[in-house]
Amino acid sequence: MEFETLVQSRKSVRGFKKQPVLRATVEEIIEVAKRAPSSMNTQPWHVHVLTGAPLEEVRRRNMEEMVAGAKVKRDIVSHGEYQGVHRGRQVDIAKKLFGAMGIARDDKPMRQDWVLRGFRQFDAPVSLVLTYDRILDPGAVCHFDLGALCYGIVLAAWDRGLGSVINGQGIMRSDIVREVADIPEDEVIMTCVAMGYPDDSFAANAVRSDREANNDFVRYVGFAD
């Protein structure tokens, strides 16, 4: 698949088939994605691939802790709640998703169910937990590098018929992820990628987020035209 077509067709998948994902397929995806650029070729990343019983334990405990009112415990520093234009875009995609799923504005049980799906990593059969070496904190540069790796994973997966969603909700309790996956303390848990074969009957999978016009965020400097 040509790169432009691949990028434009890729979308977040929030409903997965129960079909398992083979380890060999994930290895192939990572083999491609690891060619992502990193600052001075430092390659600061680690990938912990979970499935089966360990993944089920992570999602169950993460969901139970968050429902019980536990505080978020992520390794990275959060920006807090979005405001202004960023909040507006967040609300816009939520409206699209809830509309596709038939979730009314005042339907609190269904809205809560949607949140719980996020905590469960949308019941995907595989989760790739992305970490970086703690010695590199404060980590703006290595965060950028992990973003490149992450997008490489998502595109390589889509090219092989697998859908993904980059899912911070799934690691709200990073301490649980670290314990279950036996992630060393010298690694910082950045995010996770929930992955599996898309369920085309799941309405939210057809939703695509809007993108701003280039003129709203791009400046050209020094061009003759």
Automatic annotation (TrEMBL):
Residues 8-197 form the Nitroreductase domain. GO terms for molecular function: oxidoreductase activity. InterPro entries: Nitroreductase, Nitroreductase-like. SUPFAM superfamilies: FMN-dependent nitroreductase-like. Keywords: Oxidoreductase. It comes from the Bacteria. The keyword Repeat does not apply. Belongs to the nitroreductase family. This is Nitroreductase. It comes from Bradyrhizobium pachyrhizi.
